[in-house]
């Protein structure tokens, strides 16, 4: 059973930065594509993909974060990161991590997520 623990969220002003971490409890992390998702206020069921990263660090970004966010991973630490720069109020959401797999559901159970709030 793999556990996911997100951290690093907080309250920042527009234009500020945060660095999120996703700790995975197993070394199988290294062979899985990983992704960051967000769940925006007022939509408690849907999580949308923010960015993905392959086991060899090939990356893909949603249009709404491209050029501002950077996804990365450290396979030796079983940890994934999301560097968030030039944050906007519309980035406010709970951010989750998981492995997307190839179907409708992610590979593992969801963690608790970490809250990001962008406000002046």
Question: Would you mind describing this structure in some detail?
Answer:
With 120 residues, the protein is mostly beta strands. Helix content is 0%, strand content 43%. The chain is built from no helices and ten strands. The strands form two sheets. It has a six-stranded mixed sheet with strand order 2-10-9-4-5-6, with no helix packed on it. The chain has a four-stranded antiparallel sheet with strand order 1-3-8-7, with no helix packed on it. The N and C termini lie far apart (40 Å). The model has no long low-confidence stretch (mean pLDDT 95).
Task: Summarize the helices and strands and which ones pair or pack.
Blueprint: E1 4-7, E2 10-12, E3 18-24, E4 34-39, E5 48-53, E6 59-61, E7 69-74, E8 79-84, E9 93-98, E10 114-118
Parallel strand pairs: 2-10
Antiparallel strand pairs: 1-3, 3-8, 4-5, 4-9, 5-6, 7-8, 9-10
Keywords:
10 strands, mainly beta, single chain, globular, 120 residues, four-stranded antiparallel β-sheet, six-stranded mixed β-sheet, 0% helix
Summed up, what is this model?
The chain is mainly β.
Principal-axis shape equals globular
Q: What gap, in angstroms, lies between the N and C termini?
A: 40 Å
- Specify the helix fraction band: under 10%
Q: How much of the polypeptide forms β-strand, as a percent range? A: 35-45%
Low-confidence stretches are: none
Listing every helix as H and every strand as E from the N terminus to the C terminus, the arrangement reads EEEEEEEEEE
Order of neighbouring strands in the sheet with most strands: 2-10-9-4-5-6
Structural class label: mainly beta
Query: Over the alpha carbons, how many angstroms does the gyration radius reach?
Result: 13 Å
Averaging pLDDT over every residue, what do you get? 95
The count of strands amounts to 10
Report the total helices.
Answer: 0
Main sheet makeup: 6 strands, mixed
